[in-house]
Amino acid sequence: MRPTPDRVRETLFNWLGQTLYGRKCLDLFAGSGALGIEAASRGAAHVVMVEKNPLVFRALRDNVKKLVCDNVSLRYQDGLEFILRDESRYDVIFLDPPFQSDYLTKLLAILPQHLAQDGLVYVESGSVIEISLPWYVVKSGRAGQVCYQLIGVEK
Description:
The protein has a single domain, classed as Rossmann fold. It has five helices and seven strands, in the order H-E-H-E-H-E-H-E-H-E-E-E. The protein has helices at 6-16, 34-41, 54-66, 79-85, 103-110, and strands spanning 24-27, 46-51, 72-76, 90-95, 115-125, 135-143, 146-153. The protein has a seven-stranded mixed beta sheet, covered by helices on one side.
């Protein structure tokens, strides 16, 4: 597990705006839950957090319970498997898969159908991600070994 650095998380939520009031969010590889819990605390109407590691999932479940995050739903499942079966649309999708996986390529091909109009995807990786149509880069940055981007879909 590699939590999103505090500085990167602060930048991300500055990009998204200080409130996510009424938005539906998906934290597809939740890990520690920092991004999803932050979204929930900033007024998101609903946050779905997906994690497949059993130990990490239990810690995530305990944290959500302790913080009384009533607007959070947890799914114990692989992120790719979840999104392939899910039919929901989200305003913001947090995408931070394991750096060594090939998930990003697969996910970027199918995520447009899961975005609400004007929805955005936050992507975090260990190297620069080449974005191609239908995606465009809204903002991007780098902090140490972490490359991150906020991307949208061309209309």
